[in-house]
Specification:
With about 300 residues, the chain is mainly β. The protein has 3 domains: about 110 residues, Immunoglobulin-like (Sandwich), CATH 2.60.40; about 110 residues, Immunoglobulins (Immunoglobulin-like, Sandwich), CATH 2.60.40; about 70 residues, Immunoglobulin-like (Sandwich), CATH 2.60.40.1120. The protein is built from 1 helix and 26 strands. Strands 1, 2, 3, 4, 5, 6, 7, 8, 9, 10 and 11 form an 11-stranded mixed beta sheet that branches. A 5-stranded mixed beta sheet has the order 13-19-18-15-16, with no helix packed on it. The protein is elongated and about 105 Å long.
């Protein structure tokens, strides 16, 4: 037969959710707890304690909801540790006596992982083609997943063989329309031979202060020989014969745009090309050309047909 003291003792079980369970160093995470009793007990108003990995107090949560079986807390927003790693905190529901029943203290682990901040890298404004051995410029942008200040952050640019060809430092300027994309413009030198090369930008990771993971991106550098000849492209409306301003002219990898006279001048190396001319509301014009000397090509563009309505 059970003793009177055994009959007056109850049990509590607590569970916790952490979101996200993989969190950036120093970023916010949300904790929420539930407590179940046997026999069922309304613990609204009682407080749960959250302790970090060293046993220090990390916050408290009050039980605010009871559905007849389970007690539930509101949300507690806390800062994650700044050092990357796997952590186990704990939540404690202190012992309590309710309606003559003594519920013993209960605890549960709260496990989560802290990761370095992600570093994203972008490259733009690289010329569509550069001449062998000549210098060119490109823009590099770097952003932290938590929008950390990256002023004076260094990065390297590496060629197709993995050799570092340049170093850069981010200015304190952020690209217009963004909240955390820091930018720099870098001058580079093209390889000494024609071809399409894959280069890369790398921003090394760091464990100093808030850790950041390494970020990198690849970009293409197309190198062409010195242009030998001038191709003049005259672009007009086929019906009216009026010049088309702002038409895009491509003799891959060379590009140009027509002026107010409908004329574009493209300097190219000797060889066979496919000439393309495009303009809004017009059908793309295409023409094969063999360049062996300076030449003129005429592009007569037709307006796109208007779809018939049923």
């Amino acid at each position: 037969m059970a003793s009177r003291s055994d009959e007056m003792r109850g049990q509590m079980t607590c569970a916790f959710e952490v979101s996200p369970d993989v969190v950036d160093a120093g970023a916010e995470m949300t904790l929420q707890g539930k407590v179940s009793c046997s026999p069922a007990c309304d613990l609204r108003g009682h407080t749960l304690l959250v302790k970090d990995q060293a046993g220090a107090n990390a916050g408290t949560l009050k039980l605010t909801e009871f559905d007849g079986k389970t007690n539930e807390t509101g949300e507690l927003v806390v800062k994650a540790p700044v050092k990357a790693g796997v952590y186990t905190w704990s939540a404690v529901c202190p012992a309590v006596v309710k309606e003559g029943i003594s519920y013993i203290e209960a605890s549960t682990p709260i496990s989560f992982t802290v990761k370095p901040h992600t570093t994203s890298v972008v490259v733009w404004d690289t010329p569509s083609a550069v001449v062998v051995g000549e210098r060119f410029r490109t823009k590099v942008g770097i952003k932290c997943s938590n929008e950390c200040d990256l002023t004076n952050k260094e990065f390297g640019i590496y060629d197709h063989e993995g050799a570092q060809v340049a170093r850069g430092t981010l200015s304190g300027e952020r690209w217009p329309g963004t909240t955390g994309l820091y930018v720099a413009e870098v001058e580079l030198e093209a390889p000494a031979a024609e071809g399409l090369y894959t280069w890369s930008v790398k921003c090394l990771g760091s464990d100093v202060g808030i850790p950041h993971a390494e970020g990198s991106i690849s970009f293409g550098v197309r190198v062409v020989s010195h242009p030998e000849y001038l191709v003049t492209v005259e672009t007009v409306d086929k019906v009216s014969q009026t010049p088309l301003t702002g038409a895009r002219v491509v003799m891959h990898p060379y590009r140009a745009v027509t002026d107010e006279r409908g004329v574009a001048e493209v300097r190219v190396a000797k060889g066979a090309y496919q000439l393309f001319v495009t303009q809004t509301r017009y059908i793309t014009f295409g023409l094969p050309v063999e360049v062996t000397a300076d030449m003129t090509a005429r592009a007569e563009l037709e307006v796109e047909p208007v779809p018939e309505r049923n």
